[in-house]
Structure formats: C-alpha cells, structure tokens
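Lab notes, practical 5.
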Amino acid sequence: MSVETEKNRKPAGKKKRRRHAPGKKDRDRMKKLTRGLLILLGAVLIAAVAAVAVLLLTRKKEDNESVKVPLPEIMEEIQPETEETKGLGSSVLNHIITAGSAVWDSFGKRPDSYDLTETEAADFADITQCIIDPDTKRISITAQGDGVPKSDDKYYYLFALNTFEDSIGEDSDYLAKDYKDNSVTFSAALNYNQAGSRLFKKFAVAVKKDGKYVQVATPSYLTNPEAIAKYSSVFQQPGSKKGLLVDPNRMRGGELDDLGVKQAAYNIPVARLLGPTTSAAYPTINYTYNGRTYALNGQVVAEYDLVFGTLTAKGITTTAIILNNYSGAYQQLIHPKARSGSTAPYYMFNGAEESGVEYMAAIASFLADRYSGNSHGRISNWVIANEINARKEWNYMAHTDIETYVEEYARAFRVFYTAIKSVSSSARVYISIDQQWDRNIKNNTNYDGRDILDVFNRNITSKGNIDWGVAQHPYNVPLTEARTWKASKYVEHNAGTSMITMANIEVLVNYMRQAHFLNPSGEVRSILLSEQGYTSSAGQANQAAAFAYAYYKVEAYSDIDGFLLNRQTDAGEEVAQGLAFGLNDGGGNHKQIYNVFKYIDTPEHAQYTDFAKDIIGISSWNEIIR
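Output from the prediction step:
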C-alpha cells in the first residue's frame, strides 16, 4: 500500500493502554529492538555516506577529474566505536561496508558524461565493428566512445538506413538499444533474401536528445558479407599473369589453348540481361530476390553461359566487367543525375534511389550465383564500371565535386560488392581507373585516377572497410605510340607523375603499398591490370617488343595479380584510329606478337623475346625494373 494511502486513511478507534513496569520479556524485546534500530541506523549512515560520495564523484566526473578514495577508508573515519556497534558483529558491518565499497567502485568506473554539441555529435563515437556474426548469421555491431553523451535517457539506439539516406528519419523505428557505456554492442536480424533484408543497409548509432534521435557516429555498412556465402571455395588462382580480352567469335576453336591463355576478361552490359524473351529455345528466367521477382532474358544469359562455361572448362580465370549501358525500359539503373545530357556508352549506377539499389542487388546476386559454381562457368574477378575517373567518356554523371561523385559511385560499388561476396566468398571486386594519374589540368571536368583512389579509400574506410581491389589500365601516351620505353614528359617515376604506363607501373604499386591503403587484413590490395594494348600500326616488331617489355615488368611485381591484353583480334573501328591492338589482324592472321604472347610465360620465352632488347636498347631485362 502506498504511503499516500496510509496518510489519507481515517484512524480507527484506539483503546487507552495503561503503563506498567517492564518485565524480563519486555526488556529482551527492547534490547532486540534497540539492536535492530542500531543496525538500521548504521545502514542508513552508510547509505548516506555513499550517497554523498556518489554525489561528489558525479560532480568530479562531470568536471573530468579523477576520484580514487576507497569507501572503507571513509568508513574508518566516520564509524563510531560503541558497545552497541560492537554487539552488531564485525561480519555484519563488514558485509555492509563491502557492499557499499562495491557500489562506490562501480560508480568510480562509470564513463565520463559530456554535453552533446551539434558540431561534435556526428563524431562522438566510432562503430568499430559492423559484421554478420559467422555463428548466428545475425547483425552484430559494436560502438566505442570515450565517455557517454548526455541525453534524454540512458540508452544508445541502433537504426538501419538505406544506402541513399544520410540521416535518421523522424518516423524511423530503432532496431535495438543498449545502456550507454564506453562500449556498446547491438544485435539485430539480417533477414537475408527477404523483403525486409538488411544486407545492403548502413547502420547508425544514436541517442535521444530533446525528443529526437541524434546520430553520434559515422554510419557503417556490413563488412563481411562473405559470412553467409553459398560458395566458399578458394580463389581460382590462374596459372600465370598472362591474360587476354577474348574474341567471342574465336572461342570454340583451339586458339585460346594454343596461346596458353591463363586469364580472360569479358564485358557484361547489365541492361542486356533484363526483360522477358519470346524465344521458346531460350525462355525467360524469373529470378526472385528479396521478395521481388525479376524477368531476365534467357537468350542473353545463354550467351554468357557459353562464354564463361567455355573459359572455365579451359582452366582460365575469368574477369567480368560490369557496365551500365543505357536502356529506356530500365532507367532505374541510371543515376538520376546521369539520365540526360550525354551520349556516353556507359553511365553511373544508381545507388541514390531504392529502385536502383534493388535492381543492382538482384542483378549482382543472380550473376554471382550463376557463375560461382561450375555448371555455367565461374567468374573470379568482378570489375564494377569502366575507368570511372573518365566521367564524360565511360561513367557519365553530371559534373560535380569529386567527393560527391565518388560517394555516388561508392554507394553502387557497395551494393555490387556485398551482393557478390554474400554469394561467393572468394570473389574479388575491383574499382576501375585509367592511365591518367595526376594531371591537375585546370578546369578539367574529368578526375585524376590518384584523386579517385584517395577519396574512394577514405570513403570506404570511414563507412566499413572492405577488401576492394584496383583494376588499372596503363595504356601508353599517346595510345598510338607502341614504344612504352620512349621518354615522355607525362611519365615520371614518382607519385606526382601525370600518367601511369607500363614504363612507371611501380608508381601504382608503391602507392597501394602505403599503410592507409592496405586491406582489412593489412595486406596490399589486389592490383589487376585489366586492359592495355599496343598497336601494330607502326610495325609489328614494336608491338611485340612492347608486350614483352610490359609482361616482364609485371612479373617483377608480386602485388600485380594479372595483365589482360587488349585484344585477341583487331577491331575495325579502332584500326581506323591507328589502334591495331590485336594478336590477330581483322582477317584472323597471326601477328608477330602472337608467338611472344604464346611463349612468354613458358621456359621457351627467351627465344621469342630476345629480339626486343635491341629495339628497346637494353642488354638485360633487369634494366627495365625499378
């Protein structure tokens, strides 16, 4: 019954009692009562001291001062020594003091409390772990801070944001909460491949202040989607670094076997995959992902089955380049700031809208699932978009500052990375840049590759570091010049070089070896030279020598995982520009480079490449290594 009820209760009638002299029983009863009162008073005294101490501690803590006064010492100073307290028994008092001391120590370990200012709020804490728990398959998030912010209550709250959201919506519901401390941990359901999937979300930690949720840490994405991968086989290590952009029209013959191709690249323009087909031979493929069904073109998928199945059967490690070609029927894949004003062949992927994220996630999941086993072929490397620093030509979006541009690309990259790795744990996923490194051209509306890497690395690291790689295209300057060894004012051997070609490829390697560029395991990120070629327009000998020069350089750097030559057969539109890059001419005839390519990773390499030393002006291949 409450105190208030007792106070308002009408007193019952009382009988007057006579006073009498206390007997023995009464005296014993009074002794027990007195002893109980003394114990109670002692407890109250201890509690009062503890309260005062806590108050002092709290005030000291708020002033960020250290308090280290043990409660037992305080008790020794204030505890009176009387006959009654002796009678209480030392064990009772010690128990009370020990309990009080524990309370004191607990308060002493409380984190410092700080006012939360608007400028400091977003960086008050750090999300130090944002993963899928390998055992439970649930989301597990840890946030760390130095002290706790003052707020409306005693909790931190966890929210899931969409890729394109920067703040917590007013009507958002939190996923979990935990008591504020220097370190807090949250757990939430992943809901993998369900309508409410959180696989592609980013997670924010907040406190409630003045009735609103305020973010106190940079949101983080999940960093280990491979924890739920269907395919967990090891990476398909190629037989050598020698690779080729293959000609689909020459795949069924024996040329790839004759050339000893160990790696290959093939383009996948994603809009080609979408939509139903009326062909009875190649029916529409209905693919359901995250509770939604997508219609895929069965005939186009069959084409990729043939390409990747053939390459896998030949033991070739395959790289797929994922390109965002324009389709009026599927504009949701095109970033809203890229839907007009360009004739570029490929566009910025759309991570700015929910429909774009959904389509990218479904396409990436389908491709990874279909090409991670052996039944339809296997793709080991995935390059997301082409030469993204060349905004106008290969990854169009309306011009903006580089931070904004990279943020939009990073959002899309995360979706592809997460979808692919959640299916195939060993897959490697790459960002693509060209040879334009640090040009610093005034009023340039494209971006330098170096700047793109710097900003992308900061972006990814700050929002949940993942194991991305870099696919670079070290073409010569100019493209029509096959002689890589020829001096150029644009090619220097330092990080400030305007261009990176095979003449100074060590600049890229050394740049990626910097500590802040290392992957989450502390290793140099994978470097793939996924496209470069040398024209035979000024002579087949120069073309063949250029390839030998480039390949011997690649062999000298263990951090480079592959060198994919462009291309197997000359392309007519490129030859018209003086770019006859093929191992074969348009009629299928072998050029001099054909045998150089064929034998360069075999014991017979010297007899096919020694001729190039005289052309380059060296006596040993060691002379080209820096």
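Observations recorded by the TA: The chain is about 35% helix and 15% strand. Residues 24-62 form the longest helix (39 residues).
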